[in-house]
């Protein structure tokens, strides 16, 4: 093989390695997900049906349930159909394995940009923001179980709903600020409404909150230990109502009254 061809291949591989390293360093929430095993597109959002409820399960555990251009339209279709179905009283959303949702899939977006598919990126964000608006104006009670990583647009598809359940594994932040992007996914609505200067602090720093801190500042409505989640899901699955007060009392039945640790930065803001 000619030397010039070898140098060309080496240069291309080196460039790809630098791109990988950039994302590995900039995504502080965890190590970069393994994308060598492609998730089945039809199983990225699973559906669970109970007596009077439906559940959407974000199912991309290899990528911390980050949102793709196929997942968001599916969520839109599901939620619109459930809202129109009079037999469904309330809706629940949760994630699989160690995350609720880590936000938009930045690797997918980066690849689209490199391929010159700018319009597809625009459509992705337009569809995502439309879904967040749908959730914020949803006519039925909505429960988001934030068990694990809940970041960026992952928080955006949860916080506008009526109930947000945090656990002892919940980690919230706006990590997009660390790669030069503004806090999006509805953050410009809910961050300014937090106590004191907390919203401004979170938007500028991307600081993390745990489940207890989310409840303390009002981002989450309930705190439930992870080990009790099967009990609460079983309880919710048996409800034959769309009454928010009944749902709230069911969540409170297994919830805990918690306070931030004295070392929490919430006490300083």
TrEMBL record:
GO molecular function terms listed in the Swiss-Prot or TrEMBL record: 3-hydroxyisobutyryl-CoA hydrolase activity
InterPro entries: ClpP/crotonase-like_dom_sf, ECH_dom, HIBYL-CoA-H
Pathway per the UniProt entry: Amino-acid degradation; L-valine degradation
Top-level EC class: hydrolase
EC number: 3.1.2.4
This protein's record includes keyword Transmembrane: no
One Pfam family of this chain: ECH_2
Annotated Enoyl-CoA hydratase/isomerase domain residues: 54-260
SUPFAM superfamilies: ClpP/crotonase
Leader sequence segment: none
Listed transmembrane segments: none
Gene Ontology biological process terms in this record: L-valine catabolic process
Reactions catalysed, as given in the entry: 3-hydroxy-2-methylpropanoyl-CoA + H2O = 3-hydroxy-2-methylpropanoate + CoA + H(+)
Keywords carried by this UniProt record: Hydrolase
Known role: Hydrolyzes 3-hydroxyisobutyryl-CoA (HIBYL-CoA), a saline catabolite. Has high activity toward isobutyryl-CoA. Could be an isobutyryl-CoA dehydrogenase that functions in valine catabolism.
Protein family: Belongs to the enoyl-CoA hydratase/isomerase family.
PANTHER family in the record: 3-HYDROXYISOBUTYRYL-COA HYDROLASE-RELATED (PTHR43176), SMALL RIBOSOMAL SUBUNIT PROTEIN MS47 (PTHR43176:SF14)
Name of protein: 3-hydroxyisobutyryl-CoA hydrolase
Taxonomic source organism: Cuscuta epithymum
